[in-house]
Predict the structure.
Amino acid sequence: MDKMFYFLAFLAILSALMVVLVKNPIHSILYLLVTFTSITGHYILFNAQFLAAVNFIVYMGAIMVLFLFVIMFLNLNGETEPQKSTLVKFAGVISGGLLLLVMVASFKKAVTIPLNTEVDTQIGLIKNLGMVLFKDYALPFELASVLFLVAMIGAVMLAKKDWK
Amino acid sequence: MTIDIIFKLILIASIFGLSLVTAMYSTLAERKFAGFFQDRLGPDRAGPYGLFQPLADGLKLLTKEEIIPESANTFLFLAGPSLAMLTACMTSAVIPWGTYIEVDGHKLPLQVADINVGILFVFGVVSLGVYGVMIGGWASNNKFSLLGAIRGASQNISYEISMGLSIIALVMITGSLSMREITDQQSGFHGMNWYVIKQPLGFLIFLICSFAETNRTPFDLPECETELVGGYHTEYSSMKLGFYLFAEYINMFISSAVMATLYFGGYNFPFMHDLGLSQNVVAMLGVGALFIKILLFIFFFMWVRWTVPRFRYDQLMRLGWQVLIPLAILNIIITGGVVLFFQ
Amino acid sequence: MKSLTNRSKLVVNKQMTFMERIYLPVIAKGMLVTLKHFFRKSVTIRYPEVKRLFAAAYRGLHVLKKDENGAERCTACGLCALSCPAEAITMTAAERQPGEEHLYKEEKYASMYEINMLRCIFCGLCEEACPKEAIFLTNEELAPSVYDRKDLIFGKDKLVEKEHNPNGKVRGGGPLTERLYHG
């Protein structure tokens, strides 16, 4: 199990780096796909079957397909990529560095929680998850779904051409 | 414990072999049935009744010249058909092929993995299937291929939604996502417990969506010859093309198996427990019953192919978004109401 | 404008009814039609084993006939070559030597006789022109295929019939009563 975890973590980080480093946007998307696959693997290691399946369907099966779809349509390549000025590059480096600083600081402050062996390993199964979502966290869950509904209606409104 | 593992390995190998052989002979059946539907004979030269035709076709594909276009992205060009084949073969892991057989007092279920979220797994793998088409189509660096790939992607995404919604209505009745549990709920009553009777609308939506998901006529727009030459596999040759075609037939086999399992009782058959046969015999008869159902579905796929003409693209999208999704939501509401009423 | 033929039809773009719009009844009807065809006897003729009879008016490849004693009927008069609109026929005449009576019917015969099958249009005028009933277009071999255009100039080796056949216009193969025969 340990080896599996390290392998998946290594794969996830490597492919996440490759997402940023490769030039071709299509390759980027495919590396992102590998990242999601390894994260799905993590979920399975946690025995969170439902989360793994949903990650599979929603992120890998739908959202990434849409990403790929859009990028194929845009036909991005080296020539069409807009050239960024040096100033923008500097701004990017500085803000990225600041973000890194904040993250390192917060990680230094973090306390390692001792491993709790009493964790319920069945919590990730769909029945328990449903109980938690619809009993303990019913209101936040419903609010999130309203948020999605709003986003959906907004998308339809944007897509409609002659809105009066 | 070892007997379990050995049995699992045998099971995996035999399921893999069976699905490949079924897909192989589906290619022959497709051509034969096409002939019969058109008052012809179909291929009948290779062996008795043309039974060696799939072998000859395979040999032909293997020995043909392998062409990789100069401007294609070689790695992705090769990854496309491999991915299509991989995702096609993955789904069979969660389908319960039979009840269980008893060896030395061990209960050995005829299913590779009875996972808690079986339906979602099938669904996820099916939604991954489109990557083979998309990557292959894009990597070919050909406009027809790209158009085919884009059609495939948008079609799959559109029909996945109504497929998922039709499954939700089913899951509301079953209360379980495990394929084995759903199958077991349908036993008894001589077929009157099959979910197709409780979910006729859901089954219809699922059926139409599975036609779209497997890229079969009348939804074979990603590879329609009249508009896109060969669609996403225009640039493919030899066994890489064979993989794409083969993956389509495996997909057809798998989706037939899923439909038979979810809506037609899977390995259950009438008078299953009244015959007084031993468990092993009943299990084997159950496997036979499931395969008969699957073969009937495959026949249905082919029957539709040689009857219904291809949809136009806007008709396809209208059917998916404006007809099937509202119908599926309506189905969910009705099912929810009925479930509440009988609670 | 008034139609001359009265065959034109007015196109109406009528709205489909609900039953037509859900398509399923129509699809079911179509599926029944195809299912009927599925069980119908196929119309295929398995060609090399089973052949169809040729029509009585069929004109195939040329045959140079022999008489009942097995002697060639052609006298190299050249009327066929003269009548040929495609100028596909050529020949050389020779005199029959003593002792060759069993080979050639009359004193004069064609020592060389060639038909260029690339030029021939199978009109059958040679058959009509022949005064000796020596040439008929009755060879029912189909579409000779060769690798070299030269091989399509047929000489006497390919044109002269191997054995005497009593009927002038007999068709190759089987009985005339059946539509199909095994060849």
